[in-house]
Description:
About 5% of the residues lie in helices and about 40% in strands. With about 375 residues, the protein is mainly beta. The chain has 2 domains: about 15-155, Protein of unknown function DUF2961 (Jelly Rolls, Sandwich); about 160-325, Jelly Rolls, CATH 2.60.120.1390. Strands 3, 5, 6, 11, 13, 15, 18, 19, 20, 21 and 23 form an 11-stranded mixed beta sheet that branches. Strands 1, 2, 4, 7, 8, 9, 10 and 12 form an 8-stranded antiparallel beta sheet that branches. β18 and β19 form a beta hairpin.
Amino acid sequence: MTSLLAGICQIRSNIKTKRVSSYDRSGGNADWIEIKAGETAELALIPRAGIIKHIWITLMTPDPMIRRNAVIRMYWDQEQAPSVEAPLGDFFGQGWGEEYNFVSLPLAAAPSAGKALNCYFPMPFGDGARITLENQSEHAIERFYYYVDYEEHLTMPETMGRFHAWWNKELTESHPEEGETEWGIVGPQGSNRSDANNYLLADIAGKGHFVGVNYYVDNPGPMWYGEGDDMWIVDGEPWPGSLHGTGTEDFFNSSWCPNEIYLHPYFGYARIPQHKLGWMGRTHCCRFMMEDPVYFDKSLRASIEHGHDNALTLDICTVSYWYQMEPHKVFPPLPAKESRGNMPEINHTDVHRWRHEWRKALGSGKTLWGHERE
Length: 374
């Protein structure tokens, strides 16, 4: 196995290290740009060939949802459709517009309190690169600080894939006739012999390899959300495909319905529900497949069940990351800002109302405890 530091001592030629940043061109200390409401700022326009090695961003604005309301896009080799398109926070590893610390090898949200966004995914290009930030908020980003650190090369080998990232969101539907019966609690469970109703992680055309996903799930009930299997259909093969998983927590390299913060360079749980009633609330899982990417020659359909047999209603958002040869399949239109918002948080008063309806269904007995069944 090659060490991450194996090449650090090698002296290379015909490479220049460069940076685009928001530094104060006057020599002062106003090292930021302002991005007005509705404005798209061009953060970097890099000519010729090179590799972006690191991106760092922090910002200040009165909009508490700016991480969902600002959209980052990246274009390689003069392309017109972006290869990267995602809300700013979701791309860097923060869901729901929130700020919290996040640690992984390729992405991090660093102190103070997750306000420093970092990306170490290498991003090659052969004929120019362009990065933009669109402020879809009603408020200005009053201060936007950033670095884009890159290498300038004379040429780029044809074997170098281009970096891609795609954001998706779905309020999933409970598909089986029996409803939300995870673990068979309210009725028998069915069998799922297709990926048709799964949550879609990526639908890719071309040759490349899939390298990771940030998975943000908001669960409106206390039941475990993670019985869903991951499914990978490579090059149009029939179901069940080359890779078929055994459960959401298994794909994210954990086990037995975790509900605790845990961060490894390649996987982890960066956010868990604040109010502990089972698994009700917001959880952020991640998996970066640096040692085990999924390779494809023609296409890849990556998906995951939302509960076994897609039994659960969940609010799921993801950012998937991969490399491929261009041209890429153009992404579906990014949902409007209003459609990217969060579902209301379920709280203790909602649960009490559920109990009230359950008590009425059982005759409104005065000592009903909660375990009784019809």
